[in-house]
Amino acid sequence: MSVDLQKLIEEAGLDPKSYILSPPWIGAVWFTAGSLRAEGLMVGYDPDLDNPYHGQVWGTFTSKTPKRLAALAAEFVPIQEQGEH
């Protein structure tokens, strides 16, 4: 699962929401690395040429994983916010 690493973005003096709002996506959720690791997943830094703050979540994703992740997620960028920028 592809993620942006909020801590690294903020340490660079940037707004993490700008990574969701440009290009406009439909919204975003927020997880702690610890909550993902508690689910048996691995979280790490995985930069690419377009995004030096890119991370990745690795592990076994089963049919139950989406519901378990949804229970852990907090809203970060509401869907309606994309049209406001």
Describe this structure in words.
By secondary structure, the protein is α+β, with helices and mostly antiparallel strands. The protein has one domain (2-84). It has four helices and five strands. It has helices at 6-11, 18-21, 33-38, 65-72, and strands spanning 2-4, 28-30, 42-45, 54-58, 74-77. The chain has a three-stranded antiparallel β-sheet. The longest helix is centred in the C-terminal third of the chain and has 8 residues, at 65-72. The protein is globular, with a radius of gyration of 13 Å. The model has no long low-confidence stretch (mean pLDDT 88).
Mean pLDDT: 88
What order do the SSEs take from the amino end to the carboxyl end, as H and E?
EHHEHEEHE
Largest sheet: 3 strands, antiparallel
What ranges have pLDDT less than 50 throughout 5 or more consecutive residues? none
Proportion in helices: 25-40%
Please, how many domains? 1
How many individual helices? 4
What is the CA-based Rg, rounded?
13 Å
Which structural class fits the helix and strand makeup? Answer: alpha+beta
Q: How far apart lie the N and C ends?
A: 26 Å
As laid out across the biggest beta sheet, the strand order is 1-4-3
Shape: globular
* Percent in strands: 15-25%
Number of strands: 5
Features:
single chain; 5 strands; 4 helices; two-stranded antiparallel sheet; three-stranded antiparallel β-sheet; 85 residues; alpha+beta
SSE map:
Layout (H helix, E strand, L loop, with lengths): L1 E3 L1 H6 L6 H4 L6 E3 L2 H6 L3 E4 L8 E5 L6 H8 L1 E4 L8
